[in-house]
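User: Batch of two.

Assistant: Item 1 of 2:
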Amino acid sequence: MRLSVVADNRAKADNHAKAVAFQPIDDETLKSLPAALSVRQVARLLQCEIHFAYRLIYLGKLPAMRLGKRTWRVPSVGLQRVLTPPI
């Protein structure tokens, strides 16, 4: 019974990550970003919880690279691609 609840919660989180629409960030802010951002910095920019930013990374929606065992960095170019609407 417990496994079905966990699977159901995971499916809800995945569906939420698919449907999320981020607020646009002005061009000056995007240009002034460092080459790589921590997940905490990305969460602040996206105005979301840090665990949700990690969820986007794990789902492949947000490009990131792992440095060591626990450190993740998000390239600013990848963040700009995620925030730029498709044409």
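Item 2 of 2:
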Amino acid sequence: MNTVKLAVKGMTCAGCARTIERKLRATPGVSNARVDLAAEAATVDFDPSRAQVADLVAAVEKLGYQAPASGPGPSPQAQGNGH
């Protein structure tokens, strides 16, 4: 299992954050997603054999929000958690 933290731009309310969380959690290979509106970030736990960071970014962008892999800013950071 890997964890990635993505910057998410364009959220304006808690409803936006919930919508993104639901979309990420519905992505095949994702075991959990947490979106922090104030930090403009999503933390996603996923199985790298079933999902890639690009899949997560695409899910966010499909909703009309921006994620860093598709624009300026730092690249998403993924790390294994040793499991």
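The first helix runs from residue 14 to 25.
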